[in-house]
């Protein structure tokens, strides 16, 4: 199984670029993040190359994150801003060699008809799919639970799948975030199997708390091999709020990478042995 470290949540104690070698030392073979739009993207690429990691996924710019926005793609009055964000995502996807870009739908504000929001979202996703296709990018939609993000336009993966049916673009797919799915409904394997053909990326965290796998109620020892058996061979994104539990959970599913001959073993690597 292949795992990517979500650098927007893991290794927060480190400056952004230093999170990349830290992820490699812990045994991740890829990284993902909300976006690196405040970074020099060439420096991000250089850090990935130096660490031998792949850029697996990032998001189209998602509005005022600190102010509570979780995407702007469903907002009719923000279409121009969304389209500008797609242009930036295209540049980053090309530079980083990244083939998956996630579009966060956003919250439906009071007073906006749900169907108007969903139609705006569909048009924006169609625009993004068309714009990013020449770079070989697939545009993903993710369901986000409405306990953590009240009003999110796509609360369940069934809602996200229905939206993709409106979009009707070939280079689109679903991101299955196990944590959000567990909060909204559970029945994780059946849900995965139901939408398997459209799922192109998986993210994990435990519940409650959104912490490391193994800290809560989700049986990842059962679920991850089952996803594999159901034909999922893509990356699994570690998108959780770290505790002191560390990344030891990874050893159950992915072997510890041997450092290249002559390379200095990092303390994280030593600790993982
Ligand atoms: O699940 C999440 O929170 C993320 O995958 C994301 O993109 C932002 O909400
Ligand atoms: Mg997620």
UniProtKB/TrEMBL annotation:
It comes from the Bacteria. The active site is at 142 (proton donor/acceptor), 239 (proton donor/acceptor). It is an enzyme of class 5 (isomerase). It holds the Pfam family AP_endonuc_2. Keywords: Isomerase. Its EC number is 5.3.1.22. GO terms for molecular function: hydroxypyruvate isomerase activity. Gene3D superfamilies: Divalent-metal-dependent TIM barrel enzymes. Residues 22-244 form the Xylose isomerase-like TIM barrel domain. Signal peptide: none annotated. Belongs to the hyi family. This is Hydroxypyruvate isomerase. It comes from Kineococcus radiotolerans (strain ATCC BAA-149 / DSM 14245 / SRS30216). The lineage of its organism: Bacteria, Bacillati, Actinomycetota, Actinomycetes, Kineosporiales.
